[in-house]
Amino acid sequence: MKSKWVLAVVVGVLGSAVYAGDVLATSSSGLTSTVLAKSVFGQFNLNGQSVPPGTWEARMKTHGVSDVYVVDNKLAPGGTTGWHSHPGPSLILVLAGAVTNYDSSEPRCAPHTYTAGAGFVDAGGQDVHTLRNNGTVPAETIAVQFLAKDATRKINQPEPAGC
Q: DSSP strand E in the chain: where?
């Protein structure tokens, strides 16, 4: 009988934790996201260099199968993605307007604004961030996301402490 009570308490605590996580997560507003493409890639090991060597190089290596997404994100003026994370890195290209990235890896989540034609990297992993359109015109980004096969693409998070 005692083990049933212990089990009931454990289930109740876990359920409360899941509920609290959902309640504390921030939601998006004024955001429209469209997955333009998703492809599955086998393991790869890429090395690129410019000519002459040493002036530019890139490396990317995966272990296991990856999902690669191309996502079109449109943010209305005042819109936000809500605080979130991704399990893998993303390349973000700003197509129109301007977006401000607030990133938990920066002291006090210092804002960085990117305008059309600029790009930035979302490191993924433990990095928690939000994008906002603080302007008066619509903003649009394209995100190229690299994730482990079948990983959740976007994980809603609570606002980090100190932000």
A: 29-41, 45-49, 57-61, 66-80, 84-85, 90-96, 98-103, 111-115, 119-122, 129-132, 139-148, 155-156
Distance CA 113, CA 139 (A): 12
pLDDT digits 0-9 by tens, 5-55: 433 443 343 333 334 344 567 899 999 999 999 999 999 999 998 888 778
DSSP state of 7: H
Task: Tell me the per-residue pLDDT of 145-158, one tens digit each, with 9 for 90 and over.
Answer: 999 999 999 999 99
- Rounded Cα distance between 155 and 125, Å, is 10
Quote the CA–CA distance of 148 and 78 in Å, as a whole number.
32
CB atoms within 10 A of CB 132: 22
How far is residue 132 from each of residues 74, 92, 121, measured CA to CA in Å?
Answer: 11, 14, 16
Tokens of 98: 């301007």
Q: Report whether 121 contacts 112 (CB < 8 A).
A: no
Pairing of β 111-115 and β 57-61: unpaired
126 has a pLDDT exceeding 80: yes
